[in-house]
UniProtKB/TrEMBL annotation:
<protein>
    <recommendedName>
        <fullName>O-antigen ligase-related domain-containing protein</fullName>
    </recommendedName>
</protein>
<dbReference type="Pfam" id="PF04932">
    <property type="entry name" value="Wzy_C"/>
</dbReference>
<keyword id="KW-0812">Transmembrane</keyword>
<feature type="transmembrane region" description="Helical">
    <location>
        <begin position="249"/>
        <end position="268"/>
    </location>
</feature>
<feature type="transmembrane region" description="Helical">
    <location>
        <begin position="81"/>
        <end position="99"/>
    </location>
</feature>
<feature type="transmembrane region" description="Helical">
    <location>
        <begin position="225"/>
        <end position="242"/>
    </location>
</feature>
<feature type="domain" description="O-antigen ligase-related">
    <location>
        <begin position="209"/>
        <end position="376"/>
    </location>
</feature>
<feature type="transmembrane region" description="Helical">
    <location>
        <begin position="111"/>
        <end position="134"/>
    </location>
</feature>
<keyword id="KW-1133">Transmembrane helix</keyword>
<keyword id="KW-0472">Membrane</keyword>
<feature type="transmembrane region" description="Helical">
    <location>
        <begin position="203"/>
        <end position="219"/>
    </location>
</feature>
<feature type="transmembrane region" description="Helical">
    <location>
        <begin position="23"/>
        <end position="47"/>
    </location>
</feature>
<feature type="transmembrane region" description="Helical">
    <location>
        <begin position="363"/>
        <end position="383"/>
    </location>
</feature>
<dbReference type="InterPro" id="IPR007016">
    <property type="entry name" value="O-antigen_ligase-rel_domated"/>
</dbReference>
<dbReference type="InterPro" id="IPR051533">
    <property type="entry name" value="WaaL-like"/>
</dbReference>
<feature type="transmembrane region" description="Helical">
    <location>
        <begin position="176"/>
        <end position="196"/>
    </location>
</feature>
<feature type="transmembrane region" description="Helical">
    <location>
        <begin position="59"/>
        <end position="75"/>
    </location>
</feature>
Amino acid sequence: MTPSISLESRLGFVLLLSLPQFFVIKVMGMWLPLALVAVVLLFPELIIRYKKLARDRTVLLLIALMATQCLALAWSVDKALGIKFIVYEAIFIVVFSAAKHSDWEKLRRQPATWAFALGCYLLAGFIVVCRIFPELENAFLLSEWSGIFINPNVQQGLADGSIRNNVFDPVKAGGIFVNANVASCYLGMLSLCALACIKRPRLAWGISLPLLVAVFSTGSKTATVILIGLTIVYLAAAFVLKNLQAARMALVLGAITASMMILFYSSIPQQFFETIASQDIGQVSAPTAISDERNPRGAALDNAEDSLSSRLLIWQYGLEAFEEKPIVGQGYGGWQEGFSGYVKRLGEEGVELRDGFPPHNTFIYLWSQSGALSVVFAILLLWHWSGISLSAIGKNREKEHGLRMAMALTGAWVWLTVHGMGDNTGLLGDAHQVTLLALVIAGIDNLSERKRASAA
């Protein structure tokens, strides 16, 4: 019955659900998002085209990575964590297969795709509001119905104080994300995807701009650095290609980035936002507040989460752990066990570091979880994506929309990758990002191969 529904309709529906996730299914104590279950709708394409997929380098490298991760489960203390990452990679393969063989023009016209775009704008607006009124974000995150969009186990941890994250920092905002850095990465990818999918240049920039405003509203400094870096890379590409369109794209992105930095980092706008917040939030009823003991907005967390010094200490532990088990890694859950002892040792030496920090680096995390071989496969995968991206840009250098699409989609996956080098987005991102990333890579692959005129 499923094949009678067009591939584009099913793919659009899966894309739509990837935004809210909808945690409404509980199995053996574990909450499964509806977005995960909906991926089953794309299985027919996976079965029909399995021979072609068996020759696709992206799929082959991911299968090799999954094999090393399955092997690492044998010496892991937290097998559930390993299964989660393997499931994410399987989702990527299924969505990638469907997106690679879909008609992108039809996909753009699907009602579910339009609903997804509307949902992205609602998310962006909500994050901006949360940045101006942080106590409203507190009230949302601590409310029971936020568990529809956030894993209820995580939501409960936020409510009772057992889970802390930087979204509670008043100068950060995440909306339905419990980490502002992950929110900024997702919004950044969305803004570049909007720039890629809209054919008319001015309309494309106009649609992308509000999403970029929301990126800065998250308060993520990593996102600012990435936008500056993308501007420089786009300028370099324009110089190499001797292409005026690429130069124009770089200059517009640079102008927007500079304007947002002035708006969000200068003192006058900050004082304006604080004045509004102090006037309005002062009238919020007492039940929305939380005690100082449970308030994750404490200064210690605010400073520790994003500080470079904390990351250097975290990476120092990664180096020490690597020297002990360079080949097989620590297995899933091994980092958490070893890091606790490292934090205690630092405390005895008079160095403060909060326990529970993940590695804040994709390669360190991959090595820790499933060994050096998984890092090799990840590097080969990124190398392959770099190759098809350069090919897509080169083959579309004479087409305004084709070139913009190739450069923007490349920027989307590069954003996620670079973000993962200093945060915890991982190789394929979180549950929201993995579906979007699969579409991005499929689009670049089609542009590179030039198999579908509709892709460009």
